[in-house]
Amino acid sequence: MGGGALAVDAGWLLAVVLLVAVVFAVGIAVRRTLIERGGGTVECALRLAGDQRWRLGLAAYRPDELRWYPVFGFWPRPGEAFARHSLIVVSRRRPDPVEATSLGSGSVVVGCAIGQAGQRIELALSEGALTGFLAWLEAAPPGPVSEFG
Predict the structure, then answer these.
(1) Does one domain contain both 64 and 89?
(2) Domain identity same for 89 and 131
(3) Would you say residue 45 has pLDDT above 60?
(4) Which domain, by its residues, includes 53?
(5) Alpha-carbon dihedral of residues 46, 58, 63, 31, nearest 10 degrees?
(6) pLDDT digits 0-9 by tens, 63-93
(7) Do 99 and 124 reside in the same domain of the chain?
(8) What is the tally of structural domains in the chain?
(9) How many CA atoms lie within 13 A of 46 on its CB side?
(10) DSSP symbols for the chain
(11) What is the C-alpha separation between 49 and 126, in angstroms, rounded?
(12) d(CA 62, CA 41)
């Protein structure tokens, strides 16, 4: 095999890698557009109880639940969903210096309990998104507590 053939093979390999990267980026962009089309979405990192790592994603406000979607992925379903009536804000703080490197210095970390079971989660939002989240929680229509609460 000559040097020219090797260069052609390397060129094809590079083209395939670039094509896969473009398809991946377009898929993520289309998914995000479809999620945001419903309105009421904000960038939101999530950390479940007992987990040390933050997962970056989007939170979508729906009438009965908060849906959380991981930022990287093709799956159109939420990674997590929390019933609106079961979310109880229990704390608010600034991220520590280590957290701020992945969350951004303008983030606010909100600790929430999920219903009477008391499962804990943390959400990291911008100040503006936090205001919207708290308003969404306060504006919940009266009615029975969901099956989770």
Answers:
(1) yes
(2) yes
(3) yes
(4) 40-149
(5) -140
(6) 999 999 998 777 778 889 999 999 999 999 9
(7) yes
(8) 2
(9) 20
(10) --HHHHHHHHHHHHHHHHHHHHHHHHHHHHHHHHHHHTS-EEE-EEEETT--S-B-EEEEE-SSEEEEEESS----S-SEEEEGGGEEEEEEEPPPHHHHHHH-TTEEEEEEEETTTTEEEEEEEEHHHHHHHHHHHHTPPSSPPPTT-
(11) 21
(12) 9
Side chain identity at residue 149, one-letter code? G
Question: Contact at 8 Å (CB) between 100 and 55?
Answer: no
pTM of the model: 0.72
Assess contact for 43 and 28: CB atoms under 8 A: no
CATH of the domain at 59: 2.30.29.30
Band (pLDDT 50/70/90 cuts) for residue 149 is very low
Q: Are residues 101 and 143 in the same domain?
A: yes
